[in-house]
Amino acid sequence: MYASHTRRLLRRDRGARAHGGAARRRASTPLLCLIGAILLVAISRHTLLPKMPFLGSFWRVSLAPGGYIPTPKSHGVKYELHTLPVDAKAVADGDTITVYVDTADPRESGNVPCEVQEAAAERTKARAAKNYEKADTLQKIIVDAGYRQVPGLTGEQVLAKKYRVRLRGIDAPENSMPYGREAKEELVKLVQGRTLKISIYDTDRYGRLVGDVDCNGVFVQEHMLKKGLTWHYTAYDQRPELAEAQAGGLGLWALPNPEKPWEWRKEKRTRKW
Fold first, then answer.
1. What are phi and psi of 124, to 5 degrees?
2. pLDDT at 185
3. What pLDDT score was predicted for residue 55?
4. How distant, in Å, are the alpha carbons of 176, 242, 258, 263 from that of 180?
5. Rounded to an integer, what distance in angstroms lies between the CA atom of residue 145 and that of residue 116?
6. Which of 18, 166, 182, 201 has the smallest count of CB within 10 Å of its CB?
7. Which of 123, 168, 186, 208 is catalytic?
8. Which residue positions in the chain have pLDDT lower than 50?
9. d(Cα 206, Cα 135) in Å, to the nearest integer?
10. What local confidence, expressed as pLDDT, does residue 61 receive?
């Protein structure tokens, strides 16, 4: 009888231990699932959004409809310009354009001189009253300060800041050189009426901003090189993608001995003296 009672107690103890182990396993299952989910997300983000070495180690975070996503920021970029639609007359040649940025842009809004704001407001009133003489006087004040009233994205007149931009890493033939006119025409065709995103790196000795130009997803300098209408300016730029773009054999590259625009300018200066 005593032995039977002992066996019943042992069986009860083993059952309790088994039940406790199952309960602990059930309790740990959600935790394991959570850890697995975190690992899966981390792996998928690393796979889908790798840090590409040629973009450098600098990243900025921008808000997209789906949440915050990392976007590459090239090393050396000081800031970006987001321009109003470009006018054909703003293209000087195959590597220089004049652009306007709306002063409502956050980067511009706090820097507009008070006299320019007042002149723009008064000029709008003068034009509405058809007092064009006063409007022209006020326009001179605006233009001399580096601003202009131009059509905005919806067609209305907006006050905008003027910038002259030299396309970084390329040198186009001068307008009087072979393919100089074609280079200008191609650049006009590409940017006319479109807004641009320009990554600014520096300012040259002529006061122009030096930058990379994006036009609706097209890297403008690379496009011009592939068309055979500009030179890769290797004295100031060693990017391999631009060197490769130049190797297409089109345009001026089909000439037996195309003249480098920087050498042409140097020779012209020498003759002048």
1. -60, -45
2. 97
3. 35
4. 6, 19, 12, 15
5. 7
6. 18
7. 208
8. 2, 5-6, 9-10, 23, 27, 41, 43-72
9. 31
10. 33
Four-CA torsion 66, 72, 76, 81, nearest 10 degrees: -40
Active site residue 107: no
Would you call 208 a catalytic residue per the annotation?
yes
8 Å CB contact between 218 and 235 = no
- Tell me, yes or no, if 164 is annotated catalytic: no
Catalytic residue, candidates 168, 174, 186, 222: 174
Continuous H helices in the chain: 2-48, 106-109, 114-128, 132-144, 180-191, 220-226, 240-245, 261-272
Token readout for 166 is 């030299």
For 28-39, write each residue's pLDDT tens digit: 555 555 666 565
- Report phi then psi at 228, rounded to 5: 75, 35
What is the 3 state secondary structure string of 121-147? Answer: HHHHHHHHCCCHHHHHHHHHHHHHCCE
At residue 266, the pLDDT reads 85
